[in-house]
Give the backbone structure.
Amino acid sequence: MAAMLPPPVARIVILVLRILITITLFASFIIVVTNSQDYYDLGLHQRRTWHFTDEIGLQYMAATLGLGIVFSIYGTAVMALRIKRGNDEGNLLIDFYGQKVLSNLLVTATVAAFLTIQKFYKEREDNLKIFPQSDLGTFEYYWGRYRTSSGLVILAFFFSFALSVLSTHRLASRIE
């Protein structure tokens, strides 16, 4: 695809994709970090707050989002400098392998978040049978925000995948 596009157009497409990845990852990161839920713990007889730090899958997702944001900002800055200079000087291997690693991390983070959500729903059904008076039903909005965040990460994955294809073509055309 990039071989079919003139180099200036390919650079602009890559820059736009990098900006879209950064925006979607940043929005997802904000959702993950700011989401919390108050509930009454029947075992401890006190009110508690549930954050993303209470589940390992969501911690992994937040860490992956942080790494993805940093790499996307780096890639955006490098691409902006390449557009300004008007050439493709620089290490395209970092772009190529970085996008491959980022794509894999984004997919695994989304899977970890979805598995965490499913684990909660399974545990909730079991706990509601034991404690029907508990307020576990109020968690729908809380877990819904994590599902939204996971959807944004999948969108960022698709952008990253498209960018990975473009970087593959750019690397192949540079070698020839």
In short: The chain has four helices and two strands. Residues 7-175 form one domain. The helical segments are 7-34, 56-85, 92-130, 140-175.
